[in-house]
Amino acid sequence: MSHSVIVVVLLALAGFLAGGAGTMWKNNRVLAVILGVCAVLAVAGAAAWW
Length: 50
Prior knowledge:
The protein is mostly helical. It has helices at residues 3-24, 29-49. It has 2 helices and no strands.
């Protein structure tokens, strides 16, 4: 798999996780924070991979 494909996949995953965190914020803040942390880790992984 190409390096750029992995970066794009990680950024897309971060977007889905961040969207899920925003959606979950009203119902379950603990899960929203966990999703937000995972989104940040995915962005950090994409930046490190790039």
